[in-house]
Design goal:
The chain has 715 residues and is α/β, with parallel strands linked by helices. It folds into five domains: 212 residues, Rossmann fold (3-Layer(aba) Sandwich), CATH 3.40.50; 146 residues, Rossmann fold; 62 residues, no CATH class; 64 residues; 130 residues. Strand 3, helix 6 and strand 4 form a beta-alpha-beta unit.
Amino acid sequence: MNVFARLAPRLQQAIVSRLGWSSLRPVQELAGAELLEGKNAVILAPTAGGKTEASMFPTLSMLVEHESAGVGAIYVAPIKALLNNQSERLGLYTEMVGLRRFVWHGDTSSHERKQFLADPAELLMTTPESLEVMLISPRVDAHRLFGDLQIVVIDEVHAIAGTDRGAHLMSVLERLRKLSRYDVQRVGLSATVGNPVTILEWLKGTSERPGVVVDPPKQPAPRQLLIVHRPDLSELSLDAARVAHGTKSLFFCQSRALAESVAEYMRRAGTKVYVHHSAVSQEERQLAEREFNHGTDACIVCTSTLELGIDVGDLGKVLQAEASDTVSSFLQRMGRTGRRAGQPANTTFFCESADGVTQAIALVELAKTGWVEHISVTGRCWPVLIHQILALALAGSGVSIAETWEHLSRVPDFRQISREEFDRLLRWMLEDESLILTSGRLVLGPKAERRFGRKNFMELYAVFSSPQNYTVQTVGGQSLGTLNQDFVDGLVEGVSCFLLGGRAWTVLQVRHSDREVKVEPAPRGKKPTWGGYLPQFLGYRLCQKILAVLQSDEDYGYLDSSARTVLTGQRDQMRAIPDLARGGIEDLGGELRWWTFAGGRINATLRYAITSIQPTWTVLPDNFSLRVRGEDVTETRLHDVINQISAVEFWSDDELWKRIAAQLPNYRLSKFQPLMPPWVEQEVLAAFLLDREGAVGWLRGLCPLLANGNAGSHN
């Protein structure tokens, strides 16, 4: 019996009469069979490949056949825009079988929420943060609302797995499981993920249901790729305008500033342009989506805000400024095209820099092999552990220590944190007055209340910070302008330098409590560097592929003449460096450059390894190399240091690496960082900035002394 015949008769009839479908797609057949058997699942299919229906048709069939007293199914999306985008479609699907759906997020009015709580819809569409609000709010009867919950569907699961938001969602799902009389079925939807079995195991949590990855065979599809090199941004933008003319297109940029500049140049060329990024108001973004959806000749210049599955209608072209940082992102963006029969998926890269050209080639060549980045799921997600302790303490009359551990120890993202470490954290938070223990129950302490108590603790509900502007002032009190928080969070006092008002400024002090940044004019010759931002790390595999491209003689047919010339020039430069594949050293006159092509985190780790032996040296890492300066820096001496850090014993010296972790720049990675004890903060920073295992793995290939070492694979 096919899956369609197993669906509830009411749903079968609606699919035929209301949608006009005569059959289901392969992914819908495969997924339907597994979900109707009650399995947890990760469903993989390209953008617009039918994943939503593959999960929702079986869900609706279950809701029709097993009526729920409250919410029977939850659809979780990582962003509000995706919820809004899907609300009409899922509203149609529920309505055509006599059910209802309700969208609950930060913009849902209190009147609408009250109506929903009084008479819940069967399908709830929401975000992880809004689920937290419902579970904490005294106005929500969570037992009544979720007592009959059967299934949770998580869209774009790759966007949150392995992140703080993913850990947060898993903790919330474990709380929902305790409220429901069912072992809640869990379904993740994704277009691109390299390790779906790992994601499935993570998603399963404490569910005892069997699990399955639904990954139907991919049909070969035509793709059109072009990499263009234009060294001038205005020329690049005008060329992009010509390519975009006469069709609907998305132009992805790697920063908001670049998106704004490109949009302005394209407007001057007469292109109808909309801008879509996180600093643009919600109203403007929604207007862009609506207008674009109904137009036929326009371009949205955007950042990653349109990378997820938000439907903007029939799309003709995807353009990319420079290159995205991951294969996953490249495939996700290209997947927005090629939906019409006979239309190939396409991407045109417009690169200003030579590095952009080689990075784009590497992305394409990796994608051709079928490789996609793995998502790393940690079992030591300290920021969210702290967040969830506070959230549990805020709910009701607080929570006992035993209840807190019993719940949090079940969450996959906390499983590698021992009971002893948990107790040590609680002792710190009690001494630090983030928590108070009263009558045997943990409640919020004055420090946490001061930090998160505004607006009924709304800032506590999310694991990320709401965007805020910081005032920039000189030491003399002169106001220079504002910076947004995600920029400020990456600033390091006494180190970072940034441009504002056409001048370079050095950061003296960041006062998060007052949302103020104190600065002084940067010394002459000191230029703003990536140190003003959180480092943008490229992965090991991508960097190694860039090296392979530079060492190859292959002529890639998707390069324009200028990009081909740039690639030839880069290859010629690299061939002048001896033994490049094994870490060639280049003398730049006054400094040495050690070429590794190992990726940002491995190179940052190698930097601290070198300076632990030679503390007077200045070592500046990027994704491809380390530049080494100092009075006694010679190629012979650098080789000697490399040999020293290639010893197995060096990497097993935990005390050394604890000292290194204590010296790391104090990047503000989490809004809960001020509540972390020093040892936790050091671990969190080290996990973000360093990769000891990856560094050993890279050195193992470089040095025979490590030939029998043990290292994992790297993205």
